[in-house]
Amino acid sequence: MSPEVIFFSVIIAVVVAFVGYKLLAHLKGKITLHLNKTSFRFGETLTGHFDLEAKKAIEGNELSVTLVAREKIEKRDSEGKRRTRTHEVYRNEKRLEGAKVYQAGSKANFIFEFFLPKTGTSEFAASTLGQAMNMLGSLLTSERRTIEWHIEARLDAKGIDITDSQRIYVE
Fold it and tell me: What sections of the protein cross the membrane (predicted)?
């Protein structure tokens, strides 16, 4: 077999596996997140709820909702190629239920609340001049940093987990 055929076969296998996984999770049940809004300021309270629907009986290990922030660093190397690194900078997880069997056809609603952290930047860094200097420094190092925030509801279950996540914007 040619390398092209092998490459495309691997790509197709990965896509089929991903679609199969999502289909199996959807047949098992689903979680649907609902937020009152998606834009926040540091120090504000985020409130929302999610619906859990079990289409089949599910052996749950833990039901949780998590507020996560990940820093994404894009950098150009000496050859001009873009490199991207991502790492978690904040995590606040709330366990809502422990081990439990969710009966087929059951539905439940869970309310949650998170207090967004207060910004840790100094007054100077938050000022217009501080932001301009930070931008200039990013330009000089060919580095771009962004922080992406998400809310994720997860039922850690035997077999395939059921999840839903939504991006939020924090300034």
Answer: 6-24
